[in-house]
Amino acid sequence: MSLWIVAIVLGIVEGLTEFLPVSSTGHMILAAELMGVQNTWKQINTFEVVIQLGSIMAVVVVFWRRLWAVVGVKTGEYKGRKNQLNLIHVIVGCIPAIIAGLIFDDMIDKHLFSYQTVIIALIAGGILMLIAEKVAHKNRNLSETLDQLSYKQALYIGFFQVLALWPGFSRSGSTMSGGLIVGVGRKTAAEFSFIIAVPMMIGATGLKVYKALDTMTMSDVPIFIVGSIVAFVVAMLAIVFFLKLIERVTLRGFAYYRFIIAFIFILYMIFR
């Protein structure tokens, strides 16, 4: 199959799933397996991480005023407003995953980028979501806005984000589940997940590209760019849709979806 088609398909998959608690990387690995490139294109693991930067740029566009306010530059509705959410929240929310990522990056690349490990992560992440919803149902004192988020809650969410280093677990799924468990409202947990994804994915992309420089060729660059652009455009639509959806639904539906996808690929693994 043409790598141009692969780039477009995976860009669409990435843009649609990056902000849903179903794991964009996991879905890209499963899609790449079906297209026959997961084990044949040597840059596939790097591609699956790098094009996530396209989706993250969509976050920058949608949340640009909030992101500027986080670093102290307030415009629009944040001008003259005292915000509790600040750069320290973002830093403490990122530190656990940064440390774990630097330590285990090579091991993750070697052992966890396969559709078999993604199946396990989909099931494990779904179970965590069901647990989180059960805990949240009993908690009546939720932080319903980003400005009510405490440093302690941000740090705990950061620890849950470490689980997202396992492809298939889902960054938004793990951080939203963690947020519900530590007393953060569903929409607030989603928004904080998007915000801390910006520095995380910029760093992860830089690290992947740096490690792949010796094996990358100029012919890879246009394919990476196309995948990233497609992911950006699709993600712009997906963010708005998901933020409206998450106010009306729980994580249970996404957990059941993960179980169904895992079951389908278990059958694929058995009968391929």
TrEMBL record:
It holds the Pfam family BacA. Keywords: Antibiotic resistance, Cell membrane, Cell shape, Cell wall biogenesis/degradation, Hydrolase, Membrane, Peptidoglycan synthesis, Transmembrane, Transmembrane helix. One of its GO terms (cellular component) is plasma membrane. It catalyses: di-trans,octa-cis-undecaprenyl diphosphate + H2O = di-trans,octa-cis-undecaprenyl phosphate + phosphate + H(+). GO terms for biological process: cell wall organization; peptidoglycan biosynthetic process; regulation of cell shape; response to antibiotic. It is found in: Cell membrane. GO terms for molecular function: undecaprenyl-diphosphatase activity. Its EC number is 3.6.1.27. The chain crosses the membrane at residues 47-64, 85-103, 115-132, 153-169, 189-210, 222-243, 255-271. Bacitracin is thought to be involved in the inhibition of peptidoglycan synthesis by sequestering undecaprenyl diphosphate, thereby reducing the pool of lipid carrier available. NCBIfam families: PRK00281.1-2, PRK00281.1-4, undec_PP_bacA. Belongs to the UppP family. Catalyzes the dephosphorylation of undecaprenyl diphosphate (UPP). Confers resistance to bacitracin. This is Undecaprenyl-diphosphatase. It comes from Brochothrix thermosphacta. The gene is bacA.
